[in-house]
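Lecture notes, structural biology module. Today: joint structure prediction for complexes of two components.
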Amino acid sequence: MKSKLLVLFVILALVLTACGSGGEKAGGGTFKVAVVMPSSIKDLAFSQSMYDALLKVQAEKGGEANFQIVYSENMFVVDDAAAAIRDYATQGFDLIIAHGSQYGSSLQEIAPDFPETAFAWGTTVDTFGQPNIFAYEARAEEGGYVNGVLAASLSKSGVVGVVGPIETGDAKLYIDGFVSGARATNPNVQVNVNYIGSFSDVALASEAANTHVAAGADALSGTAQMVVGAIGVAKENGALWFGTQSAQTSLAPSIVVANQVYHWEVVLNDMIKLINDGTYGGKSYALTLKNDGLVMEYNPDYSIPADVKAKADETVKGIIDGSVVIMLPSK
Amino acid sequence: MISELFTATVLIGILASGIRLATPYLYAAIGETFGQRSGVLNLGVEGQMLLGAFAAFYVSLMTGNLWLGILAAAFVGALMGLGMAYVTVNLQAEQGISGIGFYLFGLGLSDLLFQKLMGSVQTVKGFPKLVIPGLTNIPVLGEIFFNHNILVYGAYLLVPLAWFVLNKTTLGLKIRSVGENPEAADSLGISVAGVRYFTIILGGTLSGIAGASLSTALLNVFQQNMTSGLGFIAVALVYFGGWRPWGVLGGALLFSLINSLQLWIQVLNIPIPSDIAIMMPYILTILVLVLTVSRVRAPSALTKPFTRSE
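The predicted structure, tokenised, for the full assembly:
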């Protein structure tokens, strides 16, 4: 049934391509953005960080009349995502964002067919040498390092636990940064990491957090959308939580200390400017603490000791001016 | 480093979390066992779980009453079961395909309702740990077996209950005969359609509760697609368990214990790459399945629609 649907989609896409006459630009100054995401816009993590950034850009540009956002969420099947990307391209969107590194090869195939349309994808640095593909990534290890410094300073038991999805991409960067920050702050602190092998298995993420707690951890972190399960466990056991990607404070206001929040609007604004000037790609971006693409946001309801906060601020400054070097395991 | 695995904390941790992890599998797989013993394969378990998880979470959030949530999950699961029964028994549709249809329906609808009614991930105060006087305080054993919430206990009580119903009651005999030889059952005056309706709706109800056990007892959140394949593993566990409740229990426990073992292996920094550790439960399950495959045979009428010859 699913494959029949897919065939239908492909036929539909072909028909649309045939009569689409190669992507007309929307008139009247409305900038049209389409985004394809692997999870939900309300995942409190990767997809939501992009959606929230788009909403912010929309508000700055004066609302829907000037900046139109269309999205396809939960596109965990890459084939479906590719069909959606092609559909959007035929409909003449100004910018099509493929928000997931798994969409790369599809984009590489589709983009050359629509030279007048700008595409963006992440998280990666690879534009495939295409003049109409932007690439973006988040240097997640930077905030990960700061979170690691905070966790090592605040942990009383000296054991810190991290729940990871799959050992790859921005999740691996974040966790490596976190481990590095914690160890640099206190060489005696024990940082336990477990990858659960899934971006969506909330139950296993929760059990991974239980494992950390049983191993003595009183400060936890984790990355990707399945960590909502782990946050629940942290809350239940009074362990501290350090978030990343989106602000996760709302889930457990009593135990969340800080979040590294992705502000893609820094990247989006520059892309939009370039597109309006007639450049459709070829540039690769990175969110960093320095360019305000990564922001450490603290939970106002958690009273963080002044000396720890000062140490974190100093670390942020150090990362920005280069005096703090994040050592990542070479692999 | 391996020796670190054999400390009390770690062993208790592995066993206790294995028992928790097996809970949703048990509800869903026991429900599915009833359906398959009567000859119907329901691949829609995952969708039923997702809708059940959402219903339980939303009703608990709105009313503050967790038991109303369970009731809602059971009801929604039963409705999905009713739909599945109509499609497979009356319309005689291909069971595998219609199950996938119901899965996609549950996946989509639960996500839609989540976005329209809740909008963002929230938490609910779920079922607390239930202390059983005299049992919870037993050292070690109490920590492993009697330090869970009520839905965990319920899942394990379901196993002997299902065994009893299937093997020791007239109802169980009817279910089994409809699954083995529906023509003979029919000639003896058993309503094949009636029995199948009953088992599929029961299966749906239990799948709904399986979802509720995730969203209001084990995790206390709802997120789109939060079951992430758990319902399909539950279906596999029915085959694994040889269509017997005790076998299903063994499979669910084996799979869950290996899963919690691999979490600990990573925490203890035992030098096994995470990818290998993550594969362990699946590899071991396949291995056991291969070694024991000829043990039992599937119900003869499984996946075969029944048409009454006049």
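Point to remember: Chain B touches chain A through 46 residues (CB under 8 Å).
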